[in-house]
Amino acid sequence: MCRWLAYSGSPILLEELLYRPSPSLIDQSLHAQMGAEATNGDGFGVGWYGLDTTMRDMPDTRGPDVPVLFRGVEPAWNDQNLRELARSTSSGLFFAHLRASTGSPVQQTNCHPFRHDRWLWMHNGLIRDFALLKRDLALAVDPALYPSIEGSTDSEVMFHLALTFGLTDDPVAAVERMVGFVEATGRRHGVEHPVQMTVATSDGERLWSFRYSSEHQSRTLYVSAAISTLRNLYPDNPAFVGLSDETRVVVSEPVGSFAGAWQPFPESSYGIVQPGDDVIGDFRPREP
């Protein structure tokens, strides 16, 4: 499968989470402990919101809310351009993904995160027997969105189905409809457990995360404890001093070695990281 990380909070350098903790996300590209595979070397990607301060006077035809993508097909542990970018780029909301292919080719258009306008999307898991279901699923994508599908992964089709079912208006309901549709389609074709997923998506202001599988044995997903809690637990650690109380990190598996720093997502649940109180709720797929 894959490993991923989503950060929302005070702007930090990407390397603070990709490289500096022990273990870090990049360490998980070689030695993941909780994934279906220990090695996640089939490409990588990062997506972030907010232009670098040195670039703000330059024209950007995409608009200020459209995230930037950097994706590559090399293993993340071996990409020097990623290391250079991570030590020089800061953001208050960014995604990072390490890919372990479930069968689709290793190519840049298959690397996460995926982008549509201001939205980012990344996924760990699979649609089982995707080749069998792909035609029915792809035909359900809004014709206006279909040309935006660049790669061949189940993850990108899931994203475009969620967009079709209203992601930009109500992300939770849209992802519930997407999963309900995939499950109904799969079962029509005799696939018993069609969906296995942890997903993150964002519009640049809020971060939505989902943990679900048709068999209710989902891949791991964790959210960081409140920064105030971490300051109390580790008063001498400077890493937590400059971070706002709004800061949260969602990960496939924990980074760093701080006891009490990570809380598991419940089975079949979603979470929303947003200004003010965060939200966690039950995830209930439904047919659109």
From TrEMBL:
GO MF entry, a single one: transferase activity
Highest taxon of source: Bacteria
Gene3D superfamilies (UniProt xref): Glutamine Phosphoribosylpyrophosphate, subunit 1, domain 1
Keywords: Glutamine amidotransferase, Transferase
InterPro entries: Gamma-glu_amide_hydrolase, GATase_2_dom, Ntn_hydrolases_N
Claim: Transferase is one of the keywords in the record: yes
Protein's name according to its UniProt entry: Class II glutamine amidotransferase
